[in-house]
Amino acid sequence: MALSRDSGGNQGSSEQEATDVSTTTSSRVIRPAERTRDIRYAVRDVVLLAEEAARGGLEMLSLNIGDPNLFGFAPPEHLVEATCEAMRANLNGYAPSSGIPEAIEAVNAEARRNGIRPICHTFITSGASEAIELALVALVNRGENVLTPSPGYPLYTAVLAKLEVENRAYYLDEENGWQPDIDDIAGRIDANTRAIVVINPNNPTGSVASRETLEALIELAIRHNIVLFSDEIYDKLLFDDREHLATASLSQRAKIITFNGLSKAYVVPGFRIGWGVISGPPDELESYCEAIRKMERARLSANHPEQYAIRPALEGDQAHLGQMMKRLERQRDLTVERLNAIDGISCVPPHGAFYAFPRLECNVSDQEFCARMIREHGVVIVPGNGFGQREGTQHFRVVFLPDEEVLGKAFDRIAEVTAEYR
Question: Does the predicted model carry a pTM greater than 0.85?
């Protein structure tokens, strides 16, 4: 009996301890910062679905990631060799916070060739993404807002969410070749607006802003004394014999930061080498430039040996671009032709980058459509709501870096599924 009483007593004690542990564990869970709650990155988020589908044995057709290296594109050899030489010379320590002089000189020379002046400050970063984040952190306070394109690259919304700054989306006009809607932008500016972002060529639509559009954006920026962020990472990837027009080349009065890097045109996204070039009235920008310098110093430096690839990239042989664009143009043409041939899909032809942003015109949400394409058919595409879109419209983003055989298979499967919703 004593043993029975002890057992019963121990059982009661164990149950109480379990309750106490459960309560204690619940109260001790580490809560993440509220600022992370609204951070989304659709391009990477779909990878989880794709990995699940791949485990089920599906043939996966990846049209989601803008990484040219995955699809048979390679950087020019002289760029790789310059990096290796720097590493062999043991230039593997910290670099100057703003970047090595050789790299800054090369970026400034490229900016001047593009008509950008006066140049107030240039800084080399871990990809153009870090340049964008440093520029936002140094500029915007909580309670203020930044105007970003919709559709647009989700990095901007992710960084603004982290900073607890309002992202105020403006629309691109699909009926006008995805040009920024200037009237929409003008109507969203208020006393708390600090910057307008333009992505040109645009990700995810592949649109290229016209001179008239850029001049109208500059006029708004000057009138309201706000900074214009010009993301030009795809400036060398243009179709149909178009020439790139740097936003900052159109005005010496506007306060403009031009972002660029080696990732896309020079096929080294893994190098993580980008930059920002601040131009405009020097006396009106110096305080802001110094704020960015503080941010640069706080994070020490960008990758060091890879910075030695900047000068040979910008000033060396550009033959790889011609070969790259010849292939991409064929794949762009195939993409537009095949998508527009599907009843229930329409696609505005892209004129730059390697993305298309087709519209779904059938009875299904972009989220459901893309999830089904991934889970059941192995076609990895990204829903339009991850980039922004007008209310009541549904889109998805296609990366046309894969070869024509892969694209053809993917479009066959997309056509099959779309037909079911029609």
Answer: yes
